[in-house]
Amino acid sequence: MKRLLLVGGGQTHVLVLRALAQHTLDVELTLVTPSPSLPYSGMLPGWVAGHYTLDELLIELAPLARAAGARVVSGSLRSLDLDQRTAVTDQGQVLHFDIVSIATGAVIDVDAIDGAREHTLPLRPLAAFVSGWQNILQRAAAATGTFRLTVIGGGAGGIELALAAAFRLRTIPLPMQVQLVTGGAPLMPGHGARARALIREALLQSGVQIFDTTARSVESKVIHLDDGRTLPTDVILLVTGASAAHWPRAAGLAVDQRGFIEVNAHLQSTSHPFVSAAGDAAALTIAPRPKSGVYAVRAAAPLATNLKAALNGQALTTFAPQQRALYLLSTGGKHAIASWGHWATAGRWVWRWKDRIDRDYIAKLRLTKT
Ligand SMILES: Cc1cc2nc3c(=O)[nH]c(=O)nc-3n(C[C@H](O)[C@H](O)[C@H](O)COP(=O)(O)OP(=O)(O)OC[C@H]3O[C@@H](n4cnc5c(N)ncnc54)[C@H](O)[C@@H]3O)c2cc1C
């Protein structure tokens, strides 16, 4: 019997599991995941803001794996031997495969800023962020003076989190200040001028202080900025964008300049056809796209189809991602901005729209636990 190994239980692979559950497969299927559940990133800012309970955004992996006939191995993949077709987890477990699918997302590079590894809470892995944020709320509630929270990162993720944190911390009856260090680049690069203007307005209205510069180094209570200023802070959230894990390159897979796994239109590694990759971990050579859940979700169906076809020695299908994606960005309260190409609009109705899409998405992935 052939062995198919799925690495990573994120947005891509939850949908792959759901698709594989629709068919009877004569395959030994294994999912390796560090966490038994996936916090849905689209609803994470809403949870930080206090609009959702944790339970509302968690996708349990075991029921999805069971429905697809997969066994779940708890752990993080550390290395791949592409000659022997084996993978080793951080728990030392050796997993054999004929075909491996990698959808391990992106990581935050905690070594890019001096001191960040010790003194910041990185947004990824999301499971660790979730418990870290709960600790921050406790610290904020126990603070005796002004509580200062700084977000490092001026992309969509950093801004959504800064706005969500500002909204949530306002519920604490103490002075608080949320600060955003943008990295010096324009806010939300990749979005149109109108969306960027709307987001800047939202930040100003929320009282988030913007520092259009780079963080050079951080200590436990202070950030040293590139322009020479020092920023006092109680906690720091690190949201500096998508970086690649080191192990795909170390394994000998073809990777792009940033270290993401290069794949062809069939979502196969350009160097090793028995390796597939999709979502944030992959770099689609025929049509590069930003790291975004929209493309990860869109890749899941062709990935599942191609994994089945590869196992059966059949012809593979082609993945053609859409040109551009709709982004719905929450702004703290129950209000959001819609951004699509150069078009953008905002309002409470956008939040309701986003809320409905997110809840429907989660509902599709909720299977009973038995
Ligand atoms: C706060 C936030 C809000 C976002 N909002 C949006 C949005 O509104 N719209 C949008 O399009 N995108 C959004 N994104 C981006 C979106 O979450 C990602 O693009 C998407 O999740 C990528 O899916 P993926 O399957 O590639 O990886 P992920 O969903 O990140 O999943 C990867 C999984 O692999 C696991 N993993 C990592 N390393 C290993 C390893 N070595 N071994 C085993 N498992 C491993 C991780 O723990 C994780 O569970 C947001 C991201 C964040 C952080």
3D architecture notes:
By secondary structure, the chain is α/β, with parallel strands linked by helices. It has two domains: 2-34 and 75-107 and 242-323, FAD/NAD(P)-binding domain; 116-241, FAD/NAD(P)-binding domain. It has helices at 11-20, 44-49, 54-57, 61-68, 116-119, 126-142, 156-169, 193-205, 247-251, 293-311, 348-365; strands spanning 2-7, 27-33, 37-39, 58-60, 70-74, 77-81, 86-89, 94-96, 99-102, 121-122, 147-152, 176-181, 209-211, 215-218, 222-225, 230-232, 235-238, 261-263, 275-277, 282-284, 327-330, 336-340, 343-347. A five-stranded parallel beta sheet has the order 5-2-1-9-19. Strands 10-17-11-12-13 form a five-stranded parallel beta sheet. A hairpin with a 4-residue loop joins strand 15 and strand 16. The two termini are 27 Å apart. The model has no long low-confidence stretch (mean pLDDT 94). The protein binds flavin-adenine dinucleotide (FAD).
Average predicted local confidence, pLDDT: 94
Helix content: 25-40%
Shape: globular
CA-atom Rg in angstroms: 21 Å
Structural class, please?
alpha/beta
- Count of folded domains: 2
Q: Which range does the strand content fall in? A: 25-35%
Q: If you consult CATH, what is the topology of the largest domain?
A: FAD/NAD(P)-binding domain
Query: What's the CATH H-level homologous superfamily of the largest domain?
Result: FAD/NAD(P)-binding domain
Strand line-up of the largest beta sheet: 5-2-1-9-19
CATH class division of the largest domain: Alpha Beta
How far apart the termini lie comes to 27 Å
CATH architecture of the largest domain: 3-Layer(bba) Sandwich
Biggest beta-sheet profile: 5 strands, parallel
